[in-house]
From TrEMBL:
Keywords, sorted A to Z: Membrane, Transmembrane, Transmembrane helix
TM regions (residue ranges): 12-40, 60-80, 87-105, 137-159
Protein name from the UniProt record: DUF2269 domain-containing protein
Origin superkingdom: Bacteria
Length: 175
C-alpha cells in the first residue's frame, strides 16, 4: 500500500506550503517596492542601504521559502490523492516553481549582487550609469515576473483548471 498523509499531516503540510508561498510572494512584493524606491534614492547611502535591505529580503523571505514551497508542494502531491503528474495544474505549478527558483539563482541574485557592488563603488552616481539602470530594471522585471507567477499559481491551486492528464491508454481508447 502506498504511503498517504493522515488528515492532520496533510493539514500541517498545507499550512507550511501556504505560509512559504505567502512569504515568497511578500518577499517578491518587497523587492519590487524597494527596487522602485531605490531608483528614487536621494543620496549614495540611501541607495546602498536600500539594495542591502533587498539582499536581506532575498535571503530571508525568498530563497529558503521558495525551496520550502517546492519541497512541501512535491510532498503534498506525492502523499495525497492529487499525485505529481495526474493533473495539469500541478505540473504547471511544479514547472513554474522550478523555473522561478532557477531564474532567481541564475539571474536575480547576480543582478542584485552587481547592483550592490555598483552602489558601494559609485554611490549616487550609479543612478546615472546606463548599466546600473539596465540591471535595476531587469531586477524589477524579475520581481514582477515572480509576483505574476505566484499569483497565477495561487489561482490555479484554487480553481484547478485544465483537468486531469490522461494516460496513454486512455487517449488511444477514445480515438
Amino acid at each position: 500500500m502506498k504511503y498517504r498523509f493522515s488528515i492532520k499531516q496533510k493539514q500541517w503540510m498545507i499550512t507550511i506550503h501556504v505560509l512559504s508561498v505567502v512569504c515568497w510572494l511578500g518577499g517578491a512584493i518587497c523587492m519590487f517596492v524597494l527596487g522602485s524606491y531605490m531608483l528614487m534614492s536621494g543620496n549614495g547611502e540611501q541607495l546602498y542601504y536600500t539594495l542591502d535591505n533587498m539582499h536581506l529580503i532575498d535571503v530571508v523571505l525568498i530563497r529558503y521559502t521558495a525551496l520550502v514551497a517546492l519541497v512541501s508542494g512535491i510532498a503534498l502531491s506525492i502523499w495525497t490523492q492529487w499525485g505529481l503528474f495526474k493533473h495539469y495544474w500541478i505540473v504547471i505549478k511544479l514547472i513554474l516553481t522550478v523555473f522561478l527558483i532557477l531564474f532567481g539563482i541564475k539571474f536575480m541574485g547576480n543582478w542584485l549582487s552587481t547592483l550592490i557592488q555598483g552602489a558601494d563603488q559609485m554611490r549616487i552616481v550609479a543612478l546615472t550609469d546606463a548599466g546600473f539602470l539596465t540591471t535595476s530594471y531587469s531586477l524589477l522585471g524579475g520581481a514582477i515576473a515572480n509576483i505574476a507567477a505566484l499569483v497565477f499559481m495561487t489561482a490555479i491551486s484554487y480553481l484547478k483548471p485544465f483537468g486531469k492528464i490522461k494516460k496513454r491508454g486512455e487517449r488511444n481508447e477514445k480515438q
